[in-house]
Amino acid sequence: MGWDLHRLEPGRRFLLGGVEIPFDRGEAGHSDGDALAHAVIDALLGAAALGDIGELFPPGDPRFRDADSLALLREAWALARRRGFRLLSLDSVVICQEPRVLPWREAIRASLARALEVSPELVFVKGKTAEGLGDTGRGLAVEALATALLEGGES
Ligand code: MG
Fold first, then answer.
1. Which of 6, 20, 52, 100 is deepest in the core (most CB within 10 A)?
2. What is the CATH number of the domain that holds 125?
3. What is the mean pLDDT of residues 3-24?
4. Ligand 1 centre distance from Cα of residue 103 (Å)
5. 126 has which bridge partners?
6. Who contacts 27 (Cβ-Cβ below 8 Å, separation ≥6)?
7. pLDDT tier for residue 61 given thresholds of 50, 70 and 90
8. What is the number of domains present in the chain?
9. Which domain holds residue 144?
């Protein structure tokens, strides 16, 4: 399982799973801020017991400044695949008050599936609001959760 949260600020791109969604704010962050991609990375690394995103791509490291999070995702997934892991299912939830995620769902599924080199049928994403409550509900942040089911791996 993976979780992430990024603050939303004007002048930043709003990225979910590598898809840029037109909006007046975007995710702040050292990298491109793609909260969903980061949650997915942690879900995959965790399922393979290979560490977490902060260990692999330290946020203070200048190499990862404005990094393309899908490139980080491909790199993390390559590590797991080299250990013999295969993806059976990837599910996720994005929590934000705006923008709506549903119109972008198929594009996000396709983008993540492309990065992981799997069928989009193994990948899902759901959008939820926070009912106006808390920082996420007030539009100050976007949160993402992901779960990955893997099989294989070296014993
Ligand atoms: Mg993050």
1. 6
2. 3.30.1330.50
3. 97
4. 23
5. 93
6. 6, 7, 8, 9, 12, 13, 14, 15, 33, 34, 35, 142
7. confident
8. 1
9. 2-152
